């Protein structure tokens, strides 16, 4: 027995290669508008853009068992396809595509649902940790419209689910990391699993653990406040009031979907061990609502760990409390069972 290995990469049609040192390399490939795959290949793909490595050697380290103080594999935001939907797409030949896919097809996957408006440089600090330990990373980025019109969010959730069931990803163990609105998007994925449990049983069983950082939880007011702080902080109050009116006006298309999603999340078909990061002063994350979820899951027999701070910043706990955050994360990851499909590090 051992622990789930770390490391990650992204996947898609557009391809960017970032080089770390002389050996540490990963490729960024865009699957769709919001889904990207990071992976470390054993063979080189064609028509790749080489990007300089970004030095994160001064970053907080978990120690040799978790992070290395080597230069980061983060790419420059201007050349990274993480958020840009206007970058030209490079089509790989079927032969080279097969080579790069097969190179990482036996590695575990970090399914990373990022917060709204996540910037490439910040995202890289998270994916770096998992890339260092032999995992692929699937970055799933949400649009505010997925939240404002939940039926679109459900469509997006199904898109993510279908990607996970593609041959290059099927059968591979997964660690889920959902930050802020990412928890909502993951809920849209598990809604489809809950509705068709037999059809999607493989995906549910492949999740070895799931982590929630600053889960947006609580009342409709919490959701409205979250929109204001995220979209237009200078007009937070106005955005909040407009959002509350919008929820009232389109209740059957919004609130009813949110309530259904809460029910699905409370009774999630994903029963692997879970870890929650949250704080008491987060306007977007009601600590009492999170603690209620923890209680519900524990009564269902789910192994749940948590780390709560009195003061912190929404979706920025790693920056505010690096030592506590990383030690808690390391402890949780070390507790996860070994998968039958180990990564080749």
Automatic annotation (TrEMBL):
Coiled-coil region list: none
A molecular function (GO) term: serine hydrolase activity
Organism superkingdom: Eukaryota
UniProt cross-references to InterPro entries, sorted A to Z: AB_hydrolase_fold (IPR029058), DUF829_TMEM53 (IPR008547)
Protein name: Uncharacterized protein LOC128353327
Species, as recorded: Scomber scombrus
